[in-house]
Amino acid sequence: MKAFYRAAAELLAPALEMDVSTVEGMLLRPPKPEMGDIGFPCFTLAKELKKAPPQIAGEVSAKLQAAEPFAEIKPVGPYVNFVISQKALIAATIDKALSSDWGRSDSGAGKTVVIDYSSPNIAKPLGVHHIRSTMIGAALSRLYAACGWKVETVNHLGDWGTNFGQLMVAYKNAEENGKNPGTDIDSQLKLYVEFHDLKDSNPAYEDQARGWFKKLEDGDEEAVRLWKIFVDESIKGLQTLYARLNVTFDHYTGESFFNDKMEATAKRIEEKGLLEESEDALVVKLEDVGIDTPCLIRKTDGATTYATRDLSAAEYRQSEYGFNKCLYVVANQQELHFRQVFSVLKKMGYDWAEGCEHVKFGMLSFGAGVFGEERTTGSTRKGNVIFLEDVLNRSVAKAREIIEDNARDDEVKNSAAELAEKVGVGAIIFTEFMQRRMKDVVFTWDKALNMQGESGPYLQYTHARLLSVIRKSGIDTNGADASKLASTLERGVLMSLLDFPASVERAVSENEPSIIAEYLLELCAVFNRMYSDKKNHQIITDDEALTKARVALVEAVRSTLSNGLALLGLAAPEKM
Question: What is the mean pLDDT of residues 14-22?
Answer without folding.
Answer: 93
